[in-house]
Amino acid sequence: MMDSSAGLSDRPSPLFMDPLRVISNLARQSGSGVSSILAILPVIIKSGVNIPSAFYKNTLDFIVPSSPEFLGNAKAFARCVTLSLWLRSLGRQDLQALIASLHMKVLTRLSECLTTGHDAADA
Q1: What is the pTM of this model?
Q2: What is the Cα–Cα distance from 54 to 61, expressed in whole angstroms?
Q3: Is residue 6 part of a domain?
Q4: How many distinct structural domains can be found in the chain?
Q5: Range of the domain at 109
Q6: Tens-place pLDDT, residues 39-81
Q7: Is residue 10 part of a domain?
Q8: Considering the domain boundaries, does residue 85 fall inside one?
């Protein structure tokens, strides 16, 4: 017997889907998945969805220096974080450490690009 005091919103919908989990799974499934989610994420952010810091930390792990799209992904990631901070800056101090981690991750590659001229346009 169902509790008559339970409303429709109290029951989870079988159609509910967490969009951040879906795009995280996309990043895990393919090499170009990270580029895909970083292309989709600005649309989600601009629609007003608050992206948790934990999502950004997990996404940063998928941006690896050995990838051919490394600098492009790092740039897109920085853009997404900036958009999130632009829309909601209060209480987001934890993203400062994330930005520092991104900087440390790209530092060596940026120096190589600027020194050799290879991929300098991306740097």
Answers
A1: 0.77
A2: 11
A3: no
A4: 1
A5: 18-116
A6: 989 999 999 888 999 999 999 998 988 888 899 999 999 999 9
A7: no
A8: yes
